[in-house]
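User: quick one, fold this
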Amino acid sequence: MQKIVLLVTLLVIQHAFSQKQEFDIVFKNVNIVSMENDKPLLNQNIAIKNGKIIAIENAKKSKLKAIKTIDLKGKYIMPSLADAHIHLPEKEEDLKRFFELNILHGVTKLRSMRGDWKHLAWKEKYNSKDSQFPKLYLSAPPISRSLEATPEELESFVKKSKESGFKFLKILSIKNQDVFVQLDNLSKKYDIPLAGHFPYLSAGVSIDEELFLKSNFNSLEHLGGLIGDPKFFESRLQAIKKNNIFICPTLTWYSIGSGQYSYDELQKLAGMEYVSIATMQTWLEKTKQYRDKMGEQALKEEVAKELNDLEEKYKVINRLQKEGIKMLLSPDASSKYMMVGSNIISEIELLKKANLSNFEILEMATTNFAQFFNENYGVLKTGNDADFIVLDENPIDNLQTLKNVKGLYFNSFYLSSENLMELKASLLSSSNK
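Assistant:
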């Protein structure tokens, strides 16, 4: 009884405090998809100060006051999205457009999977205190089987990567088992995890299974090690579960690269309106050359194999979800006929083929990403970062509403529907169409 009285007293004090203080901004009359569960909080007011959510109250009873008030008139908000597998542009001059395409589609967090030392300076510049660009999580320059390094040089690389601020070591491929052991030991010594491709030594040949099971991997990309290798599927699945390894499937890259689309369909894929006519023509010419060289029958067989592999991936993803293994969302928009931002919806649509619920899919791009980096923006509740998108409908009922983000609040900035429309017009104009 005493605990109940204390709780009620604390709630009364908190409510009284929220009525007296003046917030930076209050969003009124909004439905909140918090991502704590799949039930929206209807008709709420949400108050923000210094980039944090301070109070959430029923709009009919709320008396929250702020320097600025915005009436969202019954729209929905949910945590903004994260793309967990991106490749930053080669040139800094292309960064602004890259970032803006993500912002336009409600993506405010980006995990880079092809690191470069120059990215550290980019992060410092574009993730400043007043930045309106997505937050970057950087990988160190990737390690591949072409690596030639002494043990001392390898240790120097790992130590420098950690001290410089990279979040993880990216593995593309591994030269041999000895190198993997060295790298894994150094990863543990300097407390910087491994991530990337499953450590195959060559096609179909992996490192010793026990080495993987005990390694410092914290994420695997593209369902590596889980497709086309049934002998080790169950043991690897259980190791992934036991070690809390996150999985980033990246279905869109494989779907678009499967060869299933006609030339006309390729030009109408998501995001192609942001591609210049010249670039699209170059892509089409290269695709035609490839298909002509392969021949009709061989192409037909390749497409069938790729689509069969996708079906296997859907089944594996469904199993991962049932096992409680955390997954991250990304289309890996790094090839022809792909566009950052736009392809987030493409990935969501493919994940539906794995029979995941809308809520489970949204978790991949919100709460799971926040948990992966141990940060507090993936759920909309008091005390967490105010980082959310505005939508016309409840995304848990209709994922297609994500195609048209109506507003975005992050890093203490609010971009309204009008701001986003202007941004879209600018991006379309710069595509030279």
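User: anything notable?
Assistant: The two ends are 69 Å apart (CA to CA).
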